[in-house]
Amino acid sequence: MDFITRTISVFPQLLSAVPVVLQLAFGAMALALVLGLLIALARLSNSNLLKTVATAFVEVMRGTPLLVQLVYIFFVLPSIGIAIEPVPAGILGLGLNYAAYLSEVFRSAILSVERGQTEAALSLGYTPTSTLWKVVIPQSFVVSMAPIGNYFISLVKDTALTSVIAVSEILKTANMVNSQTFQTTEIYTAAALMYLIISLPLSRAVILLERKVRANA
């Protein structure tokens, strides 16, 4: 009973870090969605240069650990005159990393749209560009909704990695509380529960959103 009481007593201190986690998650996801779509379009374009650059970006981001990327952005870039504050650095690092993965989701989703849909739109007088943005991409978003939601939940949990670049999110806050109280088991149990409390409602919201999008498609 004492363990439960001590664990619960840590929650108020960790709650102050929840807005930071949400800021990181939503900011990074917004960046990842926009950049991921642009990368997917670049890889599907007729330009060899765009394909090469986009493919190289994806391979580098997927081939190196996210933790290393965050450290590089925060600690290495200042040596060349690019200093970024902890939270923006976290958003940038998470966003770039997840953009690489989401680009593959978007690329697969775009390729899954039947060719007949494009041909029908062109026959109705749509330009190739308007066909892409008004016909193909909206349908691809419906197809990609489930994996996007899953990646978002993973991103929420990966915000814990930003603790290494001085972002005061849940894990960083737990580390500071632990250094003062040394109640290691209770503190990190509370931190794990806090991430669970955040993730479960988001998981449910993603499922409901996916159902709604598919129903309206």
How does this model look, in words?
The chain is an all-alpha fold. It has one domain (2-6, 16-216): MetI-like fold, CATH 1.10.3720. Helix content is 83%, strand content 0%. It contains 9 helices and no strands. It has helices spanning 2-15, 18-44, 48-63, 66-76, 86-112, 115-123, 128-158, 170-181, 184-216. The longest helix is centred in the C-terminal third of the chain and has 33 residues, at 184-216. It is flat, with a radius of gyration of 21 Å. The model has no long low-confidence stretch (mean pLDDT 89).
| Biggest sheet statistics | none
The first-to-last residue Cα distance is 51 Å
**Which fold name is given in CATH as the topology?**
MetI-like fold
What's the average pLDDT? 89
The proportion of residues in beta strands is under 5%
Domains, number: 1
Number of helix segments?
9
User: What series of H and E elements makes up the topology?
Assistant: HHHHHHHHH
Find the structural class using helix and strand composition: mainly alpha
Radius of gyration over C-alpha positions, nearest whole angstrom = 21 Å
CATH class: Mainly Alpha
Name the CATH homologous superfamily.
Answer: MetI-like
Low-confidence runs of at least 5 consecutive residues: none
Number of DSSP E strands: 0
How helix-rich are the residues, as a percent range?
A: over 70%
The coarse silhouette is flat
CATH architecture classification: Orthogonal Bundle
